[in-house]
Amino acid sequence: MTIAIVLLAVVVGAYLVAVLERWSVHGQFSLSGPAVSALALLGRESLLARTPDRLFFEAGPILLLVAGLLGAAVIPLAPGLIITDLATGALFLNAALAYVLVALIMAGWGPNGAYGLIGGWRFLGQFIAYAMLIVMPITAVAMRAESLMNTQIVLSQTQLWNIAYQPLGFVLFVVAAMGLAWLPPLDLPSAPGDLAGGVEAEYTGVRLGILRLARMVIILVMASATVTFYLGGWLGPVLPAWAWSAIKTLIVAALMLFGGRYVPRVREARYLAISWKLGISLSLANILLVGVIALVVPI
Amino acid sequence: MIGARQGALSGFRRLIAGAMARDLCVFALPGIDVARARGIDLRAANLRLTITPRHASVLLFLGSLPKRLEDAAVVAYAQMPRPRAIVFLGAGDLPDGLHADVIGELSQAGLINALDELTKIISEGAFAAQVQEFDAPALQTRIEYTCPMHPEVVSDHEGNCPKCGMNLVPREISAGTAHAAHATPEQEPAMPPKSPPQATANHDHSKHTSAEATAKYTCPMHPEVVSDEPGSCPKCGMFLEEVKGEADHEGHDHHHDHSKHTSAEAAAKYTCPMHPEVVSDEPGSCPKCGMFLEEVKGEAEHEGHEHHHDHSKHASAETAAKYTCPMHPEVVSDEPGSCPKCGMFLEEVKGEAKHEGHDHSGNDHSAHQGHDAHASGASADGIEPQFMSMIELTEGQPVSPDGLIMEWIDVPFGPFFPGLPGGLGLDMSLDGDSVAKVSAHSLVSAGELLAEGATPPEKFVERLAAMSPLSPVSYRQLACLALESAAKQEVASSDATARAAAVERERIASHLGWLANLGAQTGFAMLERRATNLELTIRDANMDHIAALDPEIASLLARLRKSHMLRDKLSGTGHIDHCSATSGPVARASGKDDDARSDDATYIGLGFATVTGSGGDAAARLEQRLAEIEQSCELIAKAEHLSLPEPAKIGAASGEGEAVVETPRGAARLTLTLTDGMVTAADIGTPTAAHFTLIEAITQHAEIADALIAVGSLDLSPWEMRP
Amino acid sequence: MELELLVALTIAAALFGVGLYGSLSQTNLVMIIMGVELILAAALINMVAFWRYLHPDVIAAQMFVLIIMAVMAVEMAVGFGIAIARFRSRGSVEMEEARELRG
Amino acid sequence: MTLQVIFLAFFGIAAVWFGVVVFRTHSMVRSALALLFSQTAIGAMFLVMQAEFLGVLQIMMMATEMSVMAIFMVMFMMDPGGMGAMDMTHQKRLSLRAGAVGLVAALAVIWLPDWGPIAATVPSAGEQIKLLGFELLGRSMFIFESAGLTILTAMVAATMVAIAPQSETANKGARDGA
Q1: How far is D101 from chain C (nearest CA, A)?
Q2: pLDDT tens-digit series, residues A133-170
Q3: Which residues contact B375 (CB under 8 A, 6 or more apart)?
Q4: How far A92 CA sits from the closest chain D CA (Å)?
Q5: Contact at 8 Å (CB) between B485 and A149?
Q6: Nearest to A91 among D27, D60, D124 (CB)
């Protein structure tokens, strides 16, 4: 029962994210838009690239979707509304998201096309740079909650949301989350202007539909992870818990999606340099800071 | 609908067809820049622009395409998944093999009408019981076989390499291009999705192939024997060796570049026992390890002898070999017998003994870098005969600036690449993700100025304006000025001012168009949207309208000047030195005080002063163009009228005329000869021609995105190129 | 019933065999690293199985697993460092062509 | 025959099968990803064996590690896909024998002794993490820290080895230009 509710929530959430995405990219706000596009993609031919690695070509989008769904499995939407509340939930989320990288490398390498291949390479460089920026802020969050369990993490924010407790970690995590979902301005693997779609360039029809759905799920998971770790999850007055989760998640997703409109795409070398040099030192500083605060001020 | 998908239109399919009719994804040819210049706003027509034909359902032709672009258009169409539709706007013909579903007028209204019609067509005809196969000459490919070690060996059928006996591997090349797969870039598919394998991860040697199209093979013993194909000598049966050093060979560094070996060969006398690559004319010590150099005997005599990359491992095996298996060429034996792999009788290899002697006498193997290692490696224990040496594979491969020998990938960018001007093709060799080599070509270059001989002046003006769809007004002005100078006519100064205002208006529009392209290229959606809207309004705006748009333009410029991320993205890319033969904003951005307008009495009357920048990189070019937009706004405000240049009545005048106009991209120069009121000769110099030559320098070793931004920052108009 | 333990150990042994074969038979340095990774993974399974089925109260076993995992990462990092250096100087990471590394 | 045995055997066989694929396939990228899936299956075995933290960690670390490996394969092998027929093995017979001997020896050691009764219960996952934390930052802190330092040193050294000395790069460029 819980599983069905969560899956339904993921589907509805991914649809709403798709509406937001369409609004931010094409400037058309239409509630029916993504449904129409999805139907149209169903009807189009699903072409194979000329000499693909068939296995990787087919498996890439599906693995991406699976990684997103696994990530969604450990995110609490309301007390009790979680597929599995693992004792290592925060870490499991990382593990699931690591397969986004594997899926993109498969999707980029499989079609045997240069744009996809370069897109895959870029995502690898990007991933190694920001994986640290995801893990280390989560470490700081877990330090405060004294648990890796996601429900515990939410409950630890009853007094004060983590966004106020560790704002530095929040900023780092959101940037890294945008990198993981390859949202502009960090959309290097698909970079429309310089790779003509990159990893997506070779996919058509149903396969493209799966790839896009998977990406929406990943954006949704990253937004709800941000909410869980920093914005108090389901906590909030008056409205029911699930409504708070939904509202917060959609607001975060909208911010992530629209932020990229107002800045140009980051240069790859620059992005890597900032992640490694600045990002990692800042996230270490964040851990230290949170450790000191947790020892001195008991909130 | 011609591009329908197979299937009966019923039930669920009807629903899907309805969805497809509402979800039009458009790939515009020749490019979105041309659409804007023609005043067509695809977004306002509720279309979604796609970045690759793979994601598109509608192929939109904005007017008929130049001949050289047609094959690319056919390939783009072939890449689209069915059901696919073609909308043709304007007059003219579609490329051979393509048929329009809807034909409309080349205007915004025409586009909207065409789309209404298209919606009906798709919702009724997206699925058809019978569909036609689509095929066109540009899509033909054929398989040929090549040796992984000897790329010059190309065969039409499977078999073994005559040089090393390895199995030939198949590869796909486009038809009609014979053995020179990339020599005719217009045959290259438009977008890499379906590009031939050399754009892929495969270690494809097609880059070598154009060399062999002209390469000759000759016998080392009988120089009079020359053949176009590899094979054996009719006199002695030896394998023919490729003759290199022809002009076509240049630029194919990949092609077992022996320059270093040959130069070493001629001069080398001393080498380090540890570092075979160290060769010296004089005795001394090795710069790497300090050991004494050893003399290499018998070097100098063989100078100039054609040294082919005959892999020593095979060569040394061959020299001793007398019997080999017809199926397993790697099996060689001194004695007759049966093959250890398949049990077949070994066949005698004829002419080997001779081969041995001559092969080695001519070749300087010890100066050959790394040769020692693998020559003796072949005889070392534990190495199986079929083992393929990576040293041999990587030897002679180009080395990246970071010292790593990496796989080069050839990737065609364009002519319909979303981040580049439509019609511009860049063939890049990528070394990882940085650019190792690039060759640029325009597929939309203008034809002859005077295609039909003597041309009446009015027609000449129209032709020149039509030739450059991205800046027609400037070229119209250029033609008018040149005609008037030939006919020795004076233009009233108020007219001249009004014309200048029109040129300035176009400059603003063109620079805004460049900003929109920059926005699209860098994923800066806000910039793209605002610049596109402004460009579309200002192209046909009158004086009052332009004045009304001023605050909007100013706010966009202020926003861009404040954008640190944009500056960060652009600075340092595409640096050009002051001395280059550039003109226009590109030259002025590097501090060159060069503007054709500064000598023009009309502009002096308007108080024109050249604006220059400094830096010479893409960021400086952005600053320069922003400053020029402001300047042009001021110039228009000072001019009182605005009118398009119209050619004056020339009558039957004769004479020679010359004119220079500062187009949005730089100074264009036109000389023409008038004979009895007809233009009989004309010659034009465009800024793009000079800027085209910069592409190679500014993209060298740049990361791919930086390289594309550097190319974009030149604001090239491929339409201005002459074939 | 000790079947669980035996199954886990047998699988570890099989992985060890495969890893051993791979690291001996491959000529490419990176492929050899892959073989070694498999051997280390077999060791990991053993550690976890012994902890789980024999001494679940000794948490130090898990600590050793962590250290082995770290060693796997380091082995890769160092291996790739060497691979890059060799590739840079020789254009090859084939062991056949690394004669000067022989004793 | 408990559920645990079935899952353990399932993931174990998957791990071994992917491990074999690593050396059977001719595509380098496929090798690296087969190794990844083998390691992932091992991570799943850890989960079955109720070592939740280790299992999740294994799955997470290997994804990144093996992807790096895949990229290295593309970089160094010049050709991941096209040269499918390339044989990259040597001393096959010797290796097979060594592998078989290793397997048989290990199996003998595994099956001959009496391991005694196996533990039925383990601490809960949360408990384990807590204990592991106290272990790492308490009794075994010295081991852990020195391992960490060693690893850091090794990584720095590996990076140093990999970075091209400037002069050599310049030389190489000059030689190529000649």
Answers
A1: 8
A2: 888 999 999 988 888 889 989 988 888 888 888 899 99
A3: B312, B313, B316, B365
A4: 6
A5: no
A6: D60
Under the phi-then-psi rule, with left for phi > 0, alpha for psi from -120 to 50, and beta for the rest, what region is A42? alpha
Query: Shortest Cα distance from A52 to chain B (angstroms)?
Result: 10
Q: Chain C closest CA to D81's CA: distance in Å? A: 15
What is the spatial distance between Cα D142 and Cα B30, in angstroms, rounded to a whole number?
67
How far, in Å, CA of D113 to CA of B207, rounded?
Answer: 63
Q: Is B501 helix (H, G, I), strand (E, B) or coil?
A: helix
**Are residues D74 and D8 part of one domain?**
yes
Contacts of A26 in chain B (CB under 8 A): 43, 48
Domain boundary among D44, D78, D112: D78
Per DSSP, the three-state class of B185 is: helix
CATH at C18: 1.10.287.3510
3-state secondary structure of B75: helix
Q: Is residue D85 part of a domain?
A: no
Which residue among D8, D72, D122 places its CB closest to the CB of C8?
A: D8
Neighbours of chain D (3+ CB pairs under 8 A): A, B, C
For residue D167, give the chain B residue with the closest CA. B403
ipTM of the complex: 0.81
Please check whether residues D60 and D4 belong to one and the same domain: yes
Token pair belonging to C90: 């020789």
Range of the domain at D178: 126-178
Domain B445-720 has CATH 1.10.645.10: yes
Domain count, chain C: 1
Q: What is the pLDDT of residues D102-147, one digit of tens each?
A: 888 888 888 888 777 877 788 888 888 888 888 888 888 888 888 8
State pTM to two decimals. Answer: 0.78
Closest residue, chain B, to A262 (C-alpha)? B526
Range(s) within chain B of domains with CATH label 1.10.645.10:
445-720
Cite the residue boundaries of each domain of chain B with CATH code 3.40.50.12280: 5-137
CA distance A114 to A112: 7
B480 membership: H or E segment, kind and range: helix B472-486
CATH topology of domain B5-137: Rossmann fold (3.40.50)
Among B140, B426, B438, B522, most A C-beta atoms within 10 A, so best to mutate, is B522
Cβ contact A196–B51 (<8 Å): yes
Which is nearest to A21 in space by CA: A8, A42, A38? A38
User: How many structural domains is chain D composed of?
Assistant: 2
Q: Cβ of D173 and B401 within 8 Å? A: yes
- pLDDT reported for residue B504: 87
Is D65 contained in some domain?
yes
Q: What CA–CA distance (Å, rounded) separates C43 from C37?
A: 10
Do D73 and D131 sit in the same domain of this protein? no
